């Protein structure tokens, strides 16, 4: 696994750093274990050969994507359930859950860009059909010929823009289900943990979606706990759970440094994205100058959100081929690489406080059990 990871890392590594401002921060091969799992995920998805575009959604993939048995039975522990059972000599001592969140709505910025793209496209379509109906006696035949030229137009025109900016990254109903079912599967996997009333601790950030995820998770533990749900407190600690906001060096060198994402910006302007952009523009009957990489990316994200939140294949998906999806997956991977992963040493270092916490709690549980 180690050498495969090395290859994946090398394969993802883009051209040398493109800005003087970040040249001082040498890209590091070392990164935290959490980040490694991000790099392994696309390999797993490809290996499953999932149909259509859903294997290219990266961090917006459904949990079912990598655990297809959950589609049939959301409480299934999967094919490896029997073999992953604890050896008889092992006793589970504690559950310490460091919770992020389940499936969420797009952020306000993404929703704004989507609204922008959708209204541009509707305006363009209205202008095209009014100008062609004034020069032609039959408006229905002219609009159907426009739709033949831009096949995505009819379906997208019928699509309702239902996202509101107030949804801003909040937990979706599906996200509540994700977390509750995750907890129920965990409880089923380690019954001894609950029967013996071992110590349970849940930690969350103060983000609304994370608090709600924590509450749903706790609810999922409930039935097997036979405890009042209030008895397990959720510890809110942002310096622990949002370490990336609290690490001054990471904020200055990466988060607030425009030059840090220069490889991402270069890829957005590069030939691969250009090709996807021109294809999408022509499918939407928009001039390519009216689009940019961010708008194309938000259209692709909408395809992933509609599947994750509503379990539907949205007409936005029809704008993209599998090859386009690979380009957009790469764009997202590139951003994660430079912002969260191996790109800069401080990315992984900023998470040390969380890893220290994890290991300290493990040590403490072992110590107290002696
Ligand atoms: C948050 O977690 C950090 C790291 O474990 C710890 O030092 C700090 O005391 C915690 N803060 C609160 C308010 O619990
Ligand atoms: C999602 O949609 C598929 C196919 O349309 C359906 O078979 C499945 O039951 C749906 N899943 C949920 C959780 O509604």
From TrEMBL:
Main location per the UniProt record: membrane
Location in or out of the cell: Cell membrane
A Pfam family this chain is assigned to: His_Phos_2
CDD domains: HP_HAP_like
Enzyme class, spelled out: hydrolase
Gene Ontology MF annotations: acid phosphatase activity; bisphosphoglycerate 3-phosphatase activity; inositol phosphate phosphatase activity
The keyword Zinc is assigned to this record: no
Top-rank taxon, per record: Eukaryota
TM region positions: 38-58
GO cellular component, one term: plasma membrane
Keywords: Cell membrane, Glycoprotein, Hydrolase, Membrane, Signal, Transmembrane, Transmembrane helix
Family to which the UniProt record says this protein belongs: Belongs to the histidine acid phosphatase family. MINPP1 subfamily.
UniProt-recorded name of the protein: Multiple inositol polyphosphate phosphatase 1
